[in-house]
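Human: For the file, kindly provide a plain-text protein record giving the amino acid sequence and the backbone structure tokens, at your earliest convenience.
Assistant:
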Amino acid sequence: MSTITAVSTPNAPSAIGPYSQAIKAGEFVFVSGCIPLVPSTMQIVEGGIEEQTKQALTNLKAVLEASSSSVGKVVKTTVFLKNMEDFATVNKIYEEFFSGSEHKPARSAVEVARLPKDVLFEIECIAG
């Protein structure tokens, strides 16, 4: 059986519940849902969907790097939106975020009734 290791970094918001920022299992990294909290204040970034998406992706990148992985190694993401009307805006920011990768990760995007702390955007991923 492969080694399972919890990942923690001060460069991303600390977990706000009984979970890890990420888990390394063998060669894979499973990143918990990242929401747009500013790590230093643990407050939601000011602004709307653009600012929240960018902050959550910044947090995702920090956890990936703390896991000895990177954005370019992401194989699957799941995006949670408060409002599917924000999809085009989020998709543009998402595309820019992954533009340096040699591939586009597999992805699911769903609208949900409510997200933690009533944020507008959350993303989780699996990376190599």
